[in-house]
Write a structure and sequence with these properties.
This protein is of the alpha+beta class. It has one domain. About 20% of the residues lie in helices and about 30% in strands. The strands form 2 sheets. It has a 5-stranded antiparallel beta sheet with strand order 5-4-3-2-6. Strand 3 and strand 4 form a beta hairpin. The longest helix is centred in the N-terminal third of the chain and has 9 residues. It is globular.
């Protein structure tokens, strides 16, 4: 049996990501802002592209979600952080992702 007690889930938000995403909150659903972080399921097909976070509710995130379909919408940071996958894995942040225009991400996925 595999012991997964020592596996720690990745921290999805850094101070820098939070600062960038909060700063863009006033832009709402506008594709003229940047995607500032990419989160993904390492055991599946879902990916979340973070555009902004509500400064009054840092759990409320907005972005592009590539799941059953590609769509824009809100998602919960705490919900992503609470996911437990096989072998103790969780949703991960692409540490090599560089911010890019949301419109570019949207057009690539659709």
């Amino acid at each position: 049996m595999l012991n997964t007690e020592h596996i720690q889930k990745m921290k999805l938000l850094t101070k820098d990501i939070t600062k960038k995403a909060t700063k863009q909150y006033s832009q709402g659903t506008d594709l003229e802002q940047n995607v500032v972080a990419k989160f993904f399921n390492p055991c599946g097909d879902w990916t979340w592209y973070l555009m902004n976070i509500d400064p009054n509710d840092p759990d409320y995130a907005w972005g592009i979600v590539d799941g059953f379909a590609v769509e824009m919408g809100s998602f919960s940071i705490s919900e992503l952080e609470s996911v437990t996958l096989p072998f103790g894995l969780g949703i991960e942040r692409d540490i090599h992702f560089e911010p890019k225009p949301a419109k570019e991400v949207w057009e690539t996925l659709t």
